[in-house]
Design brief:
It is a single chain. By secondary structure, the protein is an alpha/beta fold. The protein folds into four domains: about 100 residues, Alpha-Beta Plaits, CATH 3.30.70.80; about 325 residues, 3-Layer(aba) Sandwich (Rossmann fold); about 140 residues, Glucose Oxidase, domain 1 (3-Layer(bba) Sandwich), CATH 3.50.30.30; about 130 residues, Immunoglobulin-like (Sandwich). The chain has 14 helices and 41 strands. The strands form eleven sheets. Strands 7, 8, 9, 14, 17, 19, 20 and 32 form an eight-stranded mixed β-sheet that branches. Strands 21, 22, 24, 25, 26, 28, 29 and 30 form an eight-stranded mixed β-sheet that branches. Strand 15 and strand 16 form a beta hairpin. Helix 4 runs parallel beside helix 10. The N terminus is likely disordered. Keywords: Hydrolase, Protease, Serine protease, Signal. Belongs to the peptidase S8 family.
Length: about 750
């Protein structure tokens, strides 16, 4: 049975902190608890009537036009969305049938060699390049789903070779991607379902509207890009204007997509995402991939029977920035792959420096252009600091016109795109940016000559400028360089742990390619490389789809465990994965490590996290018993001694101890593993002599690990425990904070 334990965001997004005025109506979501049996409600019309009656009790009669339900949730959980004032929302939250009422927030998207790179490192030897997906609700070997829409004519969504739609698919099928009413049935279809965009609350208005006229099409490219990464069909001779030429495909090309458009150019309303999740789970998807900044709105969601994969966010490299950090979510960090886009710089003294960018410059090494430092091209009365950072309006066109300008990145508020526009506006013939961090993420400047270098190369350029009266240079068009080392590297933008929800769950969970990913695009866009945890998320969803097709009986927690415990912490030169700063990456940066699709097929043992573990998490986290019972859809009693410290003990594939007091006795944490390998097997731990033995009568075994901080310094310490039978191995990473 597919069962959704719906949002518990009432404790995380209180009405008191809402930005909506008490008197001004705004969009809200009313959550009424779990469906009693997790099945589709037989008479949704009765639910709508009761919702309208409920609204009529809090909305004044003279404003009766606001007695209007935007979305009605009645399949996997109960509730609705509506336009309310804060005062009305407070009154409604006291209704006997209501669990919580919270603002309907607008969330933001986290914005072809990656699969080949993963396969070369340890993945299935299927060959090919890579492609990506956005908010995708995804079904392995059967069905999948995306919530930002797609461009279905893309070759990545071809029906070629797709078998009959499985009988367990409960949603509609369609081959008609253009009409608003996609109700046609198809015996064989890559895209099973692509409904139009859900209604979007208009804020203080009394009506909801369908943004984009209800079109199911992707208009910004994010959904198409990410969907093709996870489940795109094989496309030969793919390239980006000749760069990165090869075979493009998703992680699970045989999987189907079910698309539920919940986003537009303005963002993704939480009520729309809820509706998409409600529909997707009820339709029968197996995997949900969400590349959206869900933040606290969805921190307390979990779905049973469906694996939920979410991007961890792009707010790195600072700690405590990872989002989507609830234990029932597989949270993904972003890494680089072994391909880079190189744009070389030729200096007048004959030196050739390697820069990083995607540009289709018409400059050559035989015809050089005047070269000037941005600070030397400052407009009158403009501080040198601003001109050296290419601030808007900081460059004097008479000084910069026809020259290649060199700018630094000492002010992160001025993005590379802004710098490029500033240089172009001043009539410069090119731009070189000196930045040690962002250079690993290729900026696409189109035909404008652009290159980015680190501090070492930047120092050489500045010294050259100061060494001659007529410095000159040329920025060559980009070339793609494969087998780049070291890789993977944790992307600088990838959000870091500890998790904001609780430090007793180690987040992010895992890492996947998210830098310079080429994928399908929407016309008239040209499908350039994209970077972000949005791009990493569908790599994990696609891998999970592949894994589910091989292990169809595995539960979501088993899939999650296999992916985490078989991840690697080594790069392609055999050393520990690093950050962009060259330091060894911690588990708060890369989770359990980089995914390994083939290794995950045979982990030997898995950690099964049951629904009771998630409910205990809510108890330990401090939710009230009444609310947990409503969400559980039945009787569930929290332990009397519930405390946040106990969260470390839920059966999770990794371990995190948020507070280890060195003055107290060692802290013991227990884990239970399930044998999914040979019936008779013995697993040895690499840290000490203990053994885990399984026989025909026993599939599960428990072990205890103790952490003693008496001899440790303050702060986080990291390590791992690996269980192996000599053929298969499963590594459980841990983070312990000594206070």
């Amino acid at each position: 049975m597919v069962w959704l334990l719906p949002l518990l965001s009432f404790a995380l997004a209180s009405l008191a902190t809402s930005a909506i005025s008490k008197q001004t109506p705004g969009p809200y979501v009313v959550y009424m608890g779990s469906s009693t049996d997790g099945a589709r409600e037989r008479n949704p019309g009765s639910s709508l009537s009761s919702h309208l009656e409920m609204l009529a009790t809090v909305i004044p009669r003279e404003e009766g036009e606001r007695v209007f339900v935007g979305h009605s949730y009645h399949k996997t959980f109960r509730g609705f969305s509506a336009v309310l004032t804060e005062a009305e929302a407070r009154r409604l939250s006291g209704h006997p049938g209501v669990v919580s009422v919270f603002p309907d927030r607008v969330l933001q998207l986290h914005t072809t060699r990656s699969w080949a790179f993963l396969e070369a490192e340890a993945g299935p030897g299927r060959g090919g390049s890579a492609v990506e997906l956005q908010t995708t609700f995804f079904c392995p070997a059967d069905n999948a789903a995306s919530s930002a829409g797609i461009w279905p004519e893309s070759p990545s969504f071809s029906d070629a070779g797709i078998g009959a739609v499985p009988s367990r698919w409960r949603g509609p099928a369609s081959r008609d991607p253009i009409s608003r009413n996609l109700t046609a049935t198809a015996d064989r279809s890559k895209v099973l379902h692509q409904p139009g965009e859900p209604l979007r609350p208009t804020g203080n208005a009394s009506r909801f509207r369908a943004d984009g006229a209800g079109s199911p099409r992707d208009t910004v490219g994010h959904g198409t890009h990410t969907a093709s990464t996870a489940a795109g069909a094989v496309v030969f001779n793919a390239s980006y204007y000749g760069l990165a030429r090869g075979v493009a495909k998703g992680g699970s090309p045989s999987s189907r997509l079910a698309v539920y458009k919940a986003c537009s150019a303005g963002g993704c309303a939480s009520s729309n995402i809820l509706k998409a999740i409600d529909d997707a789970v009820d339709d029968g998807v197996d995997i949900i991939s969400i590349s959206i900044g869900i933040s606290s709105i969805f921190q307390s969601d979990f779905l049973k029977g469906v694996l939920v994969v979410c991007s961890g966010g792009n707010d790195g490299p600072d700690p405590y920035t990872v989002i989507n950090s609830a234990p029932w979510i597989l949270t993904v960090a972003a890494s680089s792959i072994d391909r880079t886009f190189q744009s070389s710089i030729v200096l007048g003294n004959g030196n050739r420096l390697k820069g990083n960018a995607i540009n289709f410059s018409n400059q050559t090494g035989s015809r050089l252009h005047p070269l000037i430092f941005g600070g030397d091209a400052a407009s009158d009365f403009t501080p040198v600091f601003e001109a050296s950072n290419c601030y808007p309006g900081s460059l004097d066109s008479e000084k910069a016109a026809g020259k290649i300008v060199v700018c630094v990145e000492s002010d992160p508020t001025v993005t590379r795109r802004v710098k490029k526009l500033v240089a172009e506006g001043a009539g410069a013939s090119g731009l070189i940016v000196i930045d040690n961090v962002e250079k690993g993420v290729s900026f696409d400047s189109g035909t404008f000559p652009f290159s980015e270098v680190g501090k070492r190369a930047g120092t050489q350029i500045l010294r050259y400028i100061n060494s001659t009266r007529s410095p000159r240079a040329s920025i060559l068009p980009s070339t793609d360089v494969d087998l780049f080392k070291p890789a993977p590297v944790v992307a600088y933008f990838s959000s870091r742990g500890p998790g904001s929800l609780t430090e007793s769950i180690l987040k992010p969970d895992i890492m996947a390619p998210g830098v310079g990913i080429l994928a399908a695009s929407v016309p008239p866009a040209d499908g350039g490389p994209a970077s972000g945890t949005s791009m990493a998320c569908p790599h994990v969803a696609g891998t999970a789809a592949f894994l589910k097709s091989v292990r169809p009986r595995w539960t979501p927690s088993m899939l999650k465990s296999a992916l985490m415990t078989t991840a690697t912490t080594k790069n392609n030169v055999g050393r520990t994965i690093t950050s962009v700063f060259g330091e060894r990456a911690s588990y708060h940066e890369m989770g359990a490590g980089e995914i390994g699709p083939l290794r995950a097929v045979n982990p030997g043992i898995v950690y099964e996290t049951a629904a009771s573990d998630y409910l205990l998490f809510l108890c330990y986290h401090g939710y009230k018993q009444q609310l947990i019972s409503a969400v559980a859809g039945g009787n569930f009693t929290c332990p009397a001694n519930s405390s946040d410290e106990l969260i470390s003990g839920i059966n999770y594939p990794s371990i995190s101890v948020a507070k280890l007091d060195p003055r107290r006795p060692p802290r013991a944490v227990t884990r239970t593993v399930t044998n999914v390998g040979p019936v008779n097997a013995t697993y040895a731990a690499t840290v000490s002599p203990p053994r885990l033995s399984f026989s025909g009568r026993s599939r599960r075994a428990a072990y205890e690990v103790s952490f003693d901080g008496s001899a440790a310094g303050k702060g986080y310490h990291f390590g791992h425990i690996t269980w192996s039978d000599g053929v298969r191995s499963a590594r459980s990473v841990f983070a312990v904070n000594v206070i």
